[in-house]
Amino acid sequence: MPEEQKALDNTPIKACNIIKEKDKPTQTNQTEEHTMKKAELKAIADRYEMGIIRQEITGLGVGLYLVTDEDIPELDTLANNPPFEKFEGVIATKEYSPCDNTHTYRVYCPANWFDLWGWAE
User: Fold this and answer.
1) How many other C-beta atoms lie within 10 A of the C-beta of residue 52?
2) Which residue of 6, 11, 70, 114 is most buried, as measured by CB atoms within 10 A?
3) pTM tops 0.70, yes or no
4) Cα–Cα distance, 112 to 100 (Å, whole number)
5) Do 68 and 102 form a contact (C-beta atoms < 8 A)?
6) Which residues pair with 119 in a beta bridge?
7) 3-state class of 95 per DSSP?
8) How far is the CA of 6 from the CAs of 11, 66, 97, 100, 103, in angstroms?
9) Burial of 92 (0-12, 13-18, 19+ CB in 10 A)
10) What is the pLDDT of residues 22-77, one digit of tens each?
């Protein structure tokens, strides 16, 4: 395996960095917590044509995903929340792929926001 690939495989994703360095001062720890309402997230999902993350067996929606070449400021703000400190509302992650230079956003929502057909009304 080339040395460059080994270095990429050992690079932790952003969410892991936040958890491991929780007590160190970082930009994430210095920002205020942002929450998002269902209507706001639905508007962002429509604007950027986000796909629905579904449970494999039941098909029930659990969140949204987006693979993009550009940063999405609204989702960056949400992804910069410290994960799992308050398990309310939505949890968002952002991963960068150096292989194809894309960002993958995943936003996990409360169970009552989705059903088998998409957004629960």
Assistant:
1) 17
2) 114
3) no
4) 34
5) yes
6) 114
7) strand
8) 9, 27, 14, 17, 20
9) buried
10) 344 444 443 455 567 888 899 999 999 999 999 999 999 999 999 999 999 989 98
